[in-house]
Structure formats: structure tokens, C-alpha cells
């Protein structure tokens, strides 16, 4: 059955790969990012028709509300929600600026809470599925990434709790936890050095994470689950 799938952070990287797989499956995709041209360009490039690109800063409550009003008015009720919008501002805690801490927490953690709350308004009557994107750094911790790690660890508790809250209404909520994936976010890392630490010996591709996202969106009996897609990185961190 074709559904409306909303992908925050869908313009690039992991979110873009998720948007592609959803479109290939015949779903109508709403690609959301702050940069509306990038969101629209990705929406236009997807297979199938009638995909939509929208601008929304996920850290701003009113923008999120307005985005969901537009989506339900133009596309109908939301069946799938994927929260792939995320930023990092890596620094040792002693050197971290307060405004960067707030940006990271508001984008990565509060942003997903706001989109989930807004999406639930249509999902509670018809059912649906949500996948949030965490990070292996949220599971294992990493020096220089205290705030990012906290935002991603927070998503784990949030995902499990929300899964309990909404299971009786046929809404499932799961977390995909990537390791090191080849996107703009990791463009500054030396892949030869970092890749050597990963048991599978290389960075992951966005599509390899997207496949796990799609699996969880489509699996009717899985909720509250945390699925690592990290080439084994967690085992050696
Ligand atoms: N790449 C990795 O190795 C890796 C590993 C673990 C976890 N993750 C997580 O996976 C998710 C996707 O990462 P990625 O590597 O695909 O990153 P990316 O290539 O940098 O893409 C980030 C996406 O999020 C959007 N975005 C950023 N801030 C936003 C905001 N405030 N509101 C709305 N959209 C926003 C960006 O578009 P705009 O800039 O136009 O808004 C873009 O579409 C993130 O949550 C990240 O933390 C990534």
C-alpha cells in the first residue's frame, strides 16, 4: 500500500538514500531540510511522481507545526516518518560553546521529539511507523563528542518510551544507529585511517543505512528496537 513518507534531513546523505528507497517502493515522499532548493531538487530526482520538497528547521517548533499542516493538507495523513536531520559541532566539552550545545540538542533530540509529536496527530487514527536516527557515539561515547553523544543517547530513551506510549494505537517507533557512513558529515575524516578501526574495514554507504530504515518501517511486529548499522564498529569502540 502506498503511503506518505516524510523524511527530515532528506535532501542529503542518509535521509536522501531513505527517500530513494521509499520512492522506489511506490510511496509519496516529502523531503524536508532547511535548504528548500536542495529539498526540492532531491524530491524532483526521485523515481515516481508527486514527491514534495519542503523547508523546515526541525529545531523550531512553529516551523515543524507549519510543515505538518502543509503536508497533511497537500498529501494526506503521514504513514511513515524518518528523522534523519542532524548536525555535529565536535569539540572537547571545555571548549564547547553554549550556543553550539543548544543547536545540537535542539536539532538532534528536540527536533525529533517535535516531528514525532506532530506526526502522531495523523498516525494515531490510521497507524504508522517512525524511525529515528541515532549514532554509535550515543551508545559507546566518544571524546570530543559529549554533546552529540548525549543528543543521540537521548534519542534511544525517547524512542523506547514513545514505542510503549503508542503501540496500542498501531504506531511503531524504532531507532537505527549508524557507525561511520560516507556523507557530508564525515567528509572531513580520513577514511583510510578511520576505516581500519572498523571490523568490516570501510565506511558504510548511505543506502546501507537506508535499507535498515526501510526494514524497520515495513516490519509490522517490531517496535522499540535499536538496530546498529556500523560494520561492527561498536565491538571495538
Ligand atoms: N554520517 C555518519 O557517519 C553518521 C553516523 C551516525 C549517525 N549519523 C546521523 O545520521 C543522520 C544523517 O546524517 P548524514 O550523515 O546523512 O548528514 P548530512 O549528509 O550532513 O545531512 C544532514 C541532513 O539534515 C538536514 N538538516 C540539518 N539540520 C537541520 C535542521 N535544523 N532542520 C532540518 N533539516 C536539517 C540537512 O539539510 P539542511 O542543511 O539543508 O538543513 C541534510 O538534509 C544525522 O542525524 C546524523 O547525526 C550520521
From TrEMBL:
InterPro entries: KR_dom, NAD(P)-bd_dom_sf, Sc_DH/Rdtase_CS, SDR_fam. Keywords: Fatty acid biosynthesis, Fatty acid metabolism, Lipid biosynthesis, Lipid metabolism, Oxidoreductase. The keyword Lipid biosynthesis applies. Pathway: Lipid metabolism; fatty acid biosynthesis. It comes from the Eukaryota. Residues 5-181 form the Ketoreductase domain. GO terms for biological process: fatty acid biosynthetic process. One of its GO terms (molecular function) is oxidoreductase activity, acting on the CH-OH group of donors, NAD or NADP as acceptor. PANTHER family: 3-OXOACYL-[ACYL-CARRIER-PROTEIN] REDUCTASE, SHORT-CHAIN DEHYDROGENASES/REDUCTASES FAMILY MEMBER. Belongs to the short-chain dehydrogenases/reductases (SDR) family. This is 3-ketoacyl-[acyl-carrier-protein] reductase beta subunit. It comes from Pygocentrus nattereri (Red-bellied piranha).
Amino acid at each position: 500500500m502506498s503511503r506518505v513518507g516524510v523524511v527530515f534531513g532528506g535532501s542529503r546523505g542518509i535521509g536522501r538514500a531513505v527517500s530513494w528507497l521509499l520512492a522506489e517502493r511506490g510511496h509519496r515522499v516529502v523531503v524536508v531540510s532547511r535548504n528548500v532548493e536542495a529539498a526540492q531538487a532531491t524530491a524532483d530526482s526521485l523515481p515516481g511522481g508527486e514527491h514534495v520538497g519542503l523547508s523546515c528547521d526541525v529545531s523550531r517548533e512553529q516551523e515543524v507545526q507549519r510543515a505538518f499542516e502543509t503536508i497533511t493538507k497537500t498529501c494526506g495523513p503521514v504513514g511513515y516518518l524518518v528523522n534523519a536531520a542532524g548536525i555535529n559541532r565536535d569539540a572537547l566539552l571545555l571548549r564547547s560553546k553554549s550556543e553550539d550545545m543548544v543547536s545540537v540538542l535542539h536539532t538532534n533530540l528536540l527536533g525529533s521529539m517535535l516531528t514525532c509529536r506532530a506526526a502522531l496527530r495523523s498516525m494515531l487514527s490510521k497507524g504508522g511507523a517512525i524511525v529515528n536516527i541515532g549514532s554509535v557515539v550515543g551508545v559507546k561515547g566518544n571524546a570530543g563528542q559529549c554533546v552529540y553523544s548525549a543528543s543521540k543517547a537521548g534519542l534511544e530513551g525517547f524512542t523506547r518510551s514513545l514505542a510503549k506510549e503508542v503501540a496500542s494505537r498501531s504506531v511503531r517507533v524504532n531507532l537505527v544507529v549508524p557507525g561511520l557512513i560516507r556523507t557530508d558529515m564525515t567528509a572531513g575524516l580520513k577514511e583510510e585511517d578511520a576505516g581500519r578501526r572498523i571490523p568490516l574495514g570501510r565506511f558504510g554507504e548511505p543506502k546501507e543505512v537506508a535499507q535498515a530504515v526501510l526494514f524497520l518501517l515495513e516490519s509490522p511486529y517490531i517496535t522499540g528496537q535499536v538496530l546498529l548499522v556500523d560494520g561492527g564498529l561498536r565491538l571495538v569502540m
